[in-house]
Amino acid sequence: xxxxxxxxxxxxxxxxxxxxxxxxxxxxxxxxxxxxxxxxxxxxxxxxxxxxxxxxxxxxxxxxxxxxxxxxxxxxxxxxxxxxxxxxxxxxxxxxxxxxxxxxxxxxxxxxxxxxxxxxxxxxxxxxxxxxxxxxxxxxxxxxxxxxxxxxxxxxxxxxxxxx
Length: 164
Description:
The protein is mostly helical. About 80% of the residues lie in helices and about 0% in strands.
C-alpha cells in the first residue's frame, strides 16, 4: 500500500500542478526509511539507501538532457528505497515500457509521425551544433508532454499485482 500511495499521490500532484512537491518526496523517503528500519533494522536502512541511489545513478543523465523531470527521478528514488536495488530496476524498465506504449498511442492518434520525427532530428542537430543539451519537450501543457508519473504508477501497479 505504501508504494501505491507514494506513486498515486505523485500522479495526482503531477497532473494537478505539473510537478511533484519536494515535501511529498521527503515524506515518502522518511516513510520508506521508517518502514525498512521497522522491517529489517539497520540492514533495512542500508538496503533502503542503496535502492534509493540506483535511480539517481541510472537516470541522472536523462535529467541532464531534460528528458525526465527531477520529480520523476525523486519518485523513483523513494520507491527504490522501499523496493530495493533489484526491483527498482524492473520498475524503471516497466515504467519506460508503459511510457512507450502511451507515447506510441498518442503519436498514432494525435500527431503526424513525420512531423514528430522532424522535431527529433532538429533537436539532435541543435544539440550537436551547440554542444549543449536543451529541453527536449515543448513548454507548456501540450499533449506530447506526458506526465511520466503515470507510467511509474502503472509499473508500481504491475509490481504490487505480482508481475515482477
